[in-house]
Amino acid sequence: MTERRKAGTRRDLARAACRLFAERGADATTAEEIARQAGVGLRTFYRYFRTKEDAVEPMLADGAHRWLALIPGGPEEGLPGPEALREVAVTALTPKDAEATEAMRLTGGLLRAADDDPALRTVWARINLDAEHRLVAVLAERAGPEADPLTVRMLAAGAAGAIRVAVEQWAARPDGPTTGPGSPSDLVARSMLRLTGAVAPESTSTE
């Protein structure tokens, strides 16, 4: 119960930070305001986060890492092809309900706020790099010990980069659709098609 409560408080703070930053920017938002909106005290805020910008990380990370669990195949079943990764990315970036749609809108607003905030851009860059590293580990496990490390890393970089670019491109439009043409799922399908095709797995040789 305690761990679930802590996780819930962390999520509440992250959502509050994302909402306030999207509405007014990080410079005009204080850690105290984030804590107040989340229904906790300032001391509690600093138990979870070192800075106000760090508070957005859990929410952004959830979105960045959600699709990793959707990658098909099991250990040593071979690298998934670009088409499989594209389908996974499209699924992960298609909101399933009103809550997911709201989270997507908050992410878009937050990324627009990050355009003028180096600290927020640093958080976003850190999350994406971590997601890429996690993807390398997932793909390596799927491919087995004989897989070419360069191919694994390039496939991971292409897929992770396609997702990041698609989300950033969508976020640049405040009125961007969450489904259909111009949505994150549409843009990521196009991005994956362009980027991952160049690093499609051709061989498992390590030579």
Automatic annotation (TrEMBL):
InterPro entries: Homeodomain-like_sf, HTH-type_TetR-like_transc_reg, HTH_TetR, MftR_C. Keywords: DNA-binding, Transcription, Transcription regulation. Residues 30-49 bind DNA. Residues 7-67 form the HTH tetR-type domain. GO terms for molecular function: DNA-binding transcription factor activity; transcription cis-regulatory region binding. Coiled coil: none annotated. SUPFAM superfamilies: Homeodomain-like. Pfam families: TetR_C_14, TetR_N. This is TetR family transcriptional regulator.
